[in-house]
Amino acid sequence: MKRSAADISHVILGAGGHARSLLGLLAACDLRLGGCIAPAAPEVGWPASCPWLGNDAALGRLDIARAALVNGLGSVGPTALRRQVFDTARKRGFTFPTLVHPSAIVAEHVALFEGAQVLAGAILQAGVTVEENVLLNTGCIVDHGCWIGAHTHLAPGVTLSGSVTIGSGVHVGTGAVILQGVRIGDLAIVGAGAVVTRDVTPGATVVGNPARSLARP
Ligand SMILES: CC(=O)SCCNC(=O)CCNC(=O)[C@H](O)C(C)(C)COP(=O)(O)OP(=O)(O)OC[C@H]1O[C@@H](n2cnc3c(N)ncnc32)[C@H](O)[C@@H]1OP(=O)(O)O
Predict the structure, then answer these.
(1) 61 with 45: CB under 8 angstroms?
(2) DSSP assignment of 59-98
(3) How confident is the model at residue 7 (pLDDT cuts 50, 70, 90)?
(4) Pocket lining: 191 vs ligand 1, CB cutoff 6 Å
(5) For residues 171 and 186, what is the distance between their CA atoms, to the nearest angstrom?
(6) Is 118 left (phi over 0), alpha (psi -120 to 50) or beta?
(7) What are the angstrom distances between the C-alpha of 129 and each of 25, 36, 93, 176, 177?
(8) Number of Cα atoms under 13 Å in the Cβ half of residue 122
(9) In a designed cystine with 145, which of 136, 163, 168, 174 is the match (CB 3.0 to 4.6 A)?
(10) pTM of the prediction?
């Protein structure tokens, strides 16, 4: 039987900073909120409109047919936890809707896969592909023909020029700029404010302008 939007209760996985942004996103999209699941009760100030349903064990009490999950984990570097939360719930049969804030601008011929989140003010130009569980945070600009791999997070204010390819599980830090045609390898991290002029190898961390590998002792 087909589910209507009114039947579905959205449950946020997590209760931190990104989860709070999602409360606004769900409200802006006029979607029904069921609560949140997090290892411990949310901190004081967490809105009562989003009750804590319990820790991971609460997933087992949800009706898969009536619940849609929303990945409430952001990242400030490695994205492994965002991926783990998504993959684990998917294996159990849950689904993650694609969410696009009404203030975002999404051109024609943009492909958004399961669980992609497009936050307020983001702009996606023609021919962009956004794979599953990608987070495009507040005010990102993703220009024509870019491809963004699964589980990647573009932090607030990131700018991708045309035809940039970003691998899976990448974190691109706040305000970073990536020049046209550059390829960023899987699991790489781009530091906040970096200007990336050349391809980045998988797993590397780059910072600065022009971006260079972060030397580790
Ligand atoms: C809504 C939201 O909040 S979403 C989250 C937004 N936040 C982000 O995107 C944060 C992105 N993360 C960063 O930029 C981080 O600094 C990282 C991942 C690049 C590096 O983090 P760490 O590995 O912990 O590095 P650490 O802080 O130890 O710094 C190591 C060196 O790199 C330098 N460095 C760290 N980040 C940067 C940066 N973005 N640009 C330039 N230099 C940097 C530090 O100054 C330090 O230099 P030093 O050794 O000369 O003192």
Answers:
(1) no
(2) GGGS-TTTEEEEE----SS--HHHHHHHHHHHHTT-----
(3) confident
(4) yes
(5) 10
(6) beta
(7) 21, 29, 24, 19, 18
(8) 28
(9) 163
(10) 0.96
> Tokens 């011929």 correspond to what residue?
109
Report the mean per-residue pLDDT for the chain. 96
- Residue 144 falls in the annotated catalytic set: yes
For the record, the structure tokens of 166 come out as 């970003």
Tell me the CATH architecture of domain 5-96.
Answer: 3-Layer(aba) Sandwich (3.40)
Contact 153, 147 (CB under 8 A): no
Mutate to test the pocket of ligand 1, among 73, 76, 195, 205 (most ligand atoms within 8 A of CB): 76
Q: Is the pLDDT of residue 200 over 70?
A: yes
pLDDT at residue number 49: 94
Q: Which amino acid is at 204?
A: A
As a whole number of angstroms, the distance between CA 101 and CA 118 comes to 6
